[in-house]
Amino acid sequence: MKEKNLVSVITPSYKSEKFIAKTIESVLSQTYENWEMIIVDDCSPDNSNLIVEKYMEKDNRIKLIKLKKNSGPAVARNTAIKEAKGRYIAFLDADDQWLPEKLEKQILFMKENNLPFTYSAYKLIDEEDNILGEFYPPAEANYKTLLKTNYIGCLTAIYDSEKLGKMYMLDFLERQEDYALWLSILKKINKTKGILEPLALYRIRKGSISSNKLKPAIYQWKIYREVEKLSVPKSMYYFIHYVWNGIRKYRT
Question: Deepest in the core among 11, 81, 179, 249, taking most CB within 10 A?
Fold first, then answer.
């Protein structure tokens, strides 16, 4: 049963020992206090679980689920969503952070505008927390505009499970599974709005999928053809927009 106005924070964890304490601290620092944080360990070989367990001793809103085999971020997130008790499902990876008023501002924004799904702008940081730039998405989102590029950062997305039901990520996708979920939601609700204020910190790690431009492009094409079942001409049309938007995506 969903708890009224409770936010379930969904956090997959793999090799996150260096950053997960800051991630958890950013949730603990939220001015909106009605949350639970469900961290799913994807068989991480480092000491990240020990860090999580220390925080669990201090705050019972933090929970840890350990997967029996390494299954990827989609399975980890879906496992957490299944266990979530909150009305609102929010996503935060184990190397990213939220700014203190993120939940308070976004939940209020959703209620005031009667929106079942929202997102926000965010800042980019490196492994030493240096600010690299900012990303400002369009103020509104719909299915067709999102096909041109994924401008909804996973760390900013929140959906209302009371209005949408629990919605899950496609676990056969190795990457871009969050993007596929946003498209699925927008097909259901038609359109939504975002907050044009940076409310989160997105970390770009050396050698990560975020810093590799080829792999995301391959998965973008797979989503067009294999998930959305678009024709080759339509896929080419949206892929050209994807490449162009990728070139001019970030503002510093």
Answer: 11
Per-residue model confidence as pLDDT tens digits over 37-72 = 999 999 999 999 999 999 999 999 999 999 999 999
Question: Is residue 121 within 8 Å of 199, Cβ to Cβ?
Answer: yes
Q: What is the pLDDT of residue 250?
A: 47
CA gap 200, 50 in Å, rounded: 25
CB 98 within 8 A of CB 26: yes
Q: Tell me the mean pLDDT in the region 109-128.
A: 97
- Spatial separation of the C-alpha atoms in residues 219 and 45, rounded to whole Å: 27
Percent of the chain whose predicted confidence (pLDDT) is above 70: 94
Residue type, 233: P
pLDDT exceeds cutoff 80 at 225 = yes
Residue type, 157: A
* Residues 215, 244: Cα–Cα separation, whole Å: 16
Q: Where are the alpha helices (DSSP H) in the chain?
A: 20-28, 48-58, 73-83, 102-113, 143-148, 161-164, 177-189, 214-222, 232-247
Distance CA 61, CA 55 (A): 10
Percentage of residues in the chain having pLDDT higher than 90: 83
Angular region, 240: left φ>0, alpha ψ -120 to 50, beta rest: alpha
pLDDT at residue 140 is higher than 90: yes
Four-way CATH pick for 3-206: 3.30.565.10, 3.90.550.10, 3.30.40.10, 3.30.450.40: 3.90.550.10
What is d(CA 173, CA 209) in angstroms, rounded to the nearest whole number? 14
**What does the radius of gyration of the chain's CA atoms come to, in whole angstroms?**
17
